[in-house]
Amino acid sequence: MAEPRRSRRAGELVLEVRALRVMRGGRAILDGLDLGVQRGEPFAIAGPSGSGKTTLLFAVAGLSRPDGGTIEVGGVSLEGLAPRERAERVGIVFQDYQLFPHLTALENACLAPRLHGLEGYEARVLELFEALGLSELAHRAPHELSGGQKQRVAIARTLALRPEVVLFDEPSAALDPQTTDELATRLRGLSHETQVIVVSHDLPFLERCCTRGLRLEGGRIAASGTVADVTRSA
Amino acid sequence: MRRALVALTWLWIVFIGSALAPREALAEPGREGVLVVGLTGKYPPFSYFDERGELAGFDVDFARALCTEMRLRCELVATEWDSLVAALLTDKIDAVVGSMAITEERSRAVRFSVPYYESGARLYVRPGARDSGTRGFTVGVTLGTTFERVARERFPEAEVRIYKGDTDVLQDLATGRLDGMITDELVGAYMAHERGAVVEPVGARLLEERMGIPVKPGRDELLAEIDRAVGALRSSGVQRALLEKHLHVGGASAGAGERPGLWRSAAPLLLRGLGATLFICVTGIGLGIALSLLLAWGALSKGFVARPTALLVDFVRSTPFMIQLFALYFGPPSLGLSLSAEAAGITAIAVHSAAYLAEVVKTAYRAVPDGQRLAARALGLSAWQSLRHVVGPQMLPIATVPCLNTVVAMIKDSAVVSVIGIYELTLQTQRIISASFRPIELYAVAAGLYFLLTFPLLVAGRRLEQRWRARGLLHG
Ligand SMILES: Nc1ncnc2c1ncn2[C@@H]1O[C@H](COP(=O)(O)OP(=O)(O)OP(=O)(O)O)[C@@H](O)[C@H]1O
Ligand SMILES: [Mg+2]
User: Fold this and answer.
1) B29 — alpha (psi -120 to 50), left (phi > 0) or beta?
2) Which residues are in the CB-under-5-Å shell of ion ligand 2?
3) Residue B418 falls within a domain, yes or no?
4) Do both B230 and B149 map to the same domain?
5) pLDDT of B81-133, one tens digit each?
6) Are residues B464 and B331 in the same domain?
7) Does the beta carbon of A91 lie under 8 angstroms from any beta carbon of chain B?
8) What distance in Å separates the CA atoms of residue B391 and residue B69, rounded to the nearest whole number?
9) Is B257 in CB contact (< 8 Å) with chain A?
10) Is residue B360 located within the same domain as residue B444?
11) So what's the pLDDT on residue B5?
12) Do A181 and A196 contact (CB within 8 A), yes or no?
C-alpha cells in the first residue's frame, strides 16, 4: 500500500523542537533548546566548531536519545515511533556520507525502501538518480566514485524514503568551489519536495542556499532570523 | 556452483557413512551381556593392529576367550596405555586385558584378578650400542609401565626416555636414537623372531611379573567371575595354546620385504581415517561456528553476560586443547554423564574452535565503522536488518581469512583426538605403522592427506581476499 500523501503547505511548522536537552560525559551539550522550522526554503544552522550542531542533528534524526524535551515533525512526536516510521519523517546525509561499501550506488539507494516494502521504489530511485545525474554511475561501487558523486548517492539514498525533513551535516566540507555551487543550487531545488536543514560553518555557502536560519553557540541559540542576520552577527 | 555443492554434499554423506561404520571406540560399559575390554593395540605380540587393521595378539585372543568363558559379548577398545586406568575408573571400559603387571601401587587404584600369564622384563640393545653401565646409555620404556622404575633403579647412569608404546620405542631403536629398551621377555623374543628387529637380550631377567586383569574397585561380582574364567582358561590349556600361538609361530609373516599388500590394506584404513577426520572436523567446527556467533554476541553485548563470556573465551584460548579434550572425555562421567570418545572429541573441537572464531567475529564486528550502523539506523533499519544487510556483509571479508586460518589450525589439531581412541587419520596411520613398521612412508602419506584437506582452504582464502580487495572491501 502506498503512503498516504502528507499535506505540504508552505509556512506550516514542519519541525518543532522544545526544551531539548542532550548530556554528554556528564555535561549538557544542548540545554533547553527551542527551535521551530517552517516549511519552505532550506534552513541554515550555523555555529562554531563544538557548538553542538551535529549533536542537534543526531537527536533530530533519532540517532541519539535526548535527555529531555520533545521533537515533533509535521506535528507528530518522534518519540515512540518505529525506526522505519521515523526514517520516513526525518532523513540525514552524513558529513562523510557513510555509503555501504559492499553495495553499488543503486543498491545503496534501494536497500531501505526494499526492506521497508515500499511499493514502486525502483521507479522512484531511478527518477532520483536521473535528477541527480547519477544514471551512468548506478552500478559503480562507492570506492569508484568521487566525493561529490558519493554525496549525490547519499542524497538519493535518503530521499528514496520521501522524508519530510532532510538534515545535511556540513555538506560543503569536502567539496571544491564548483561542486559547492552545484550543491547550493541542488539544495534549493530540493525544497520543493522536502524540508532541507543544512548545518555548516561555511557562511558563504549557507548564504547561497538558505534564506532563514539560526546560529548555535555553546549549545544555545545565539541568533536567528534571515541568513543575513545570522551570518552578520557572527 | 550449485552442482558442485550437491556433489560435495554427496561426498560428505559417503564420508560420514564410512566414518561411522567402525564404532570400535563407542562401546558403552556396564551393558547387559557385554564386556568392554580396554587395551593399547601398541604392544605386539600381545596387542597390535594386523595388516588388515584388525586388533590381534595374545591379549586380544585371551580377551575373546575370556568373554566366551563368561558368556558375554566382547567389545575391544584401544586406548593409550596411560589412559587405560582413567578409562576404567570413569566406566568407559569394564576391564583391561592389556598385559598389566600386578603392582602394589596399581592395586591401590584398581582391583586385579588372578594372574593370566607370567613373564619378566629384560634389557634389549641394538648392535653397536653403548655399554649399559656407561653414562650416555639411552634406554626407552613405555610411560607408566613397571619397566620405567626398573630402568631408573638398575641403570642409574642411563638416560631413560619415555614413550607412548613399544612400537614407538622400537622405531627410535632402529634409527639409533636409543641404545636399548626394557620390555617383557616374551615381547623381546617375539621381536627377534617375527620382526627381524635388530635387538638382542642382555643380562638376566630384571624382574618377575604377573599380569592381571584390573577392574574398577567395587565391581566384586565381575572380578569374581573373571577370576573363575581365568582359572578355567589356564586349567583347560587354552591360555597355554594361545601363548604358543602368539610367541612361537614360524615365519608366517616375517621379513620386511614380504609385505606386498601394505598399500592395498592400508589405503582403505587411511581413507576411513580421512573420513573420520573430515567428519569430526566438519561437525565440530560447524558447531563451533554456531557457538562462536553466540559467544561473540555475548561478548559484544552490553549486558551482564559480556564479562563471563569474555572470560570463558579467554579461558578456552589459554588452555591446551589436549587438556580440554581429556577434561571432556574423563570429566563428565564423575558427574554421571558419559560422553563417547567421538562426542567428546567433537565437543572439544567445537568449544576450542568457537573460542578462537568468536574472537575473530568480535574483531570483525568492531572493525566495521560505527557510522555504518548509524547510517542503517537513520534509514530506519531494525537491529537485525542492520546486521543482516549492512554490518554482516562487511564483516565477512574481514573475518573470512582469519576464520579459515583458525579452521586450518583446528583440522591439524584434530590429530590430538587420537589420544582418546578416535580412529581418525592420525590414529589409523599409527595403527598401520604398528603392524607394518613403515613409519616414513605412512607419515608422509598422512601429511599429504592433511595437506589435501587444508590447502584448498588456504587457497580459497587467498582468492577471496584478492577479490574483496579489488572490490574495495578490504584495506591494508
Ligand atoms: N560523547 C561525548 N562526550 C563528551 N563530549 C562530547 C561527546 N560528543 C560530543 N561532545 C562535545 O559536545 C560538543 C558539541 O559537539 P558537536 O559534535 O555537536 O559539535 P559541532 O557543532 O558539530 O562541531 P563541528 O563543527 O566541529 O562538527 C563538543 O564540545 C564536543 O566536544
Ligand atoms: Mg559537527
Assistant:
1) beta
2) A 54
3) yes
4) no
5) 888 888 899 888 999 999 998 988 899 999 999 999 988 888 888 877 777 77
6) yes
7) yes
8) 67
9) no
10) yes
11) 55
12) no
Does residue B301 carry a pLDDT above 90? no
| Residue A47 CA, closest ligand 1 atom number | 21
In one-letter notation, the amino acid at residue B372 is Q
Q: Check whether residue B230 and residue B374 sit in a common domain.
A: no
Measured between CB atoms, which of A94, A101, A157 is closest to B394? A101
Q: What is the pTM of this model?
A: 0.73
Within B52-111, where are the H helices? 58-70, 84-89, 104-107
Inter-chain touch A102–B372, beta carbons under 8 Å: no
Q: What is the CA radius of gyration of chain A?
A: 17
Residue A95, amino acid: Q
Q: How many CB atoms lie within 10 A of CB B446?
A: 22
Q: Looking at the 3D structure of chain B, how many domains does it have?
A: 3
In three-state secondary structure terms, A35 is strand
- B387 & B460 share domain: yes
| Cβ–Cβ below 8 Å for B379 and A143 | no
pLDDT of residue A157: 96
Contact assignment for B385 to A86 by CB distance below 8 Å: no
Residues of B in contact with A111 (CB under 8 A): 379, 381, 389-390
Grid cell, residue A90, equals: 526525518
Q: Which residues contact B256 (CB under 8 A, 6 or more apart)?
A: B196, B437
Residue of chain B with shortest Cα separation from A166: B378
pLDDT tens digits, one per residue of A198-219: 999 888 899 988 989 999 988 8
Q: What is the ipTM of this complex?
A: 0.92
Check pocket membership of A171 for ligand 1, CB cut-off 6 A.
no
d(CA A102, ligand 1 centre) in Å: 30
Q: How far is the C-alpha of B435 from the C-alpha of B448, rounded, in Å?
A: 21
Query: CB within 8 A of B449, min separation 6: which ones?
Result: B270, B273, B274, B425
- Second CATH level (architecture) for the domain A40-63+82-232: 3-Layer(aba) Sandwich (3.40)
Q: Which residues of A touch B378 (CB under 8 A)?
A: 61-63, 87, 91-92, 94, 158
Same domain, B102 and B127: no
| Single-letter code of the amino acid located at A75 | G
Q: Does A95 sit in the ligand 1 pocket, CB within 6 Å?
A: no
Nearest-CA distance A234 → chain B (Å): 31
Q: How far is the CA of A144 from the centre of ligand 2 (A)?
A: 26
Regarding whether B171 and B57 lie in a shared domain, the answer is no
My answer on whether B418 and B277 are in the same domain is yes
Touching check for B389 and chain A: CB below 8 Å?
A: yes
CATH at residue B133: 3.40.190.10
Q: What is the mean pLDDT of each run of 10 residues along chain A (234 residues)?
A: 50 87 89 88 90 92 90 88 92 94 95 93 92 92 92 94 93 86 87 90 89 89 86 70
The parent domain of residue B179 ranges over 119-211
Q: φ, ψ for residue A7 (rounded to 5)?
A: -70, 140
- β-strands A212-217, A220-226 pairing: antiparallel
Q: Which of residues 26-85 of A touch B (CB under 8 A)?
A: 58, 61-63, 82-85
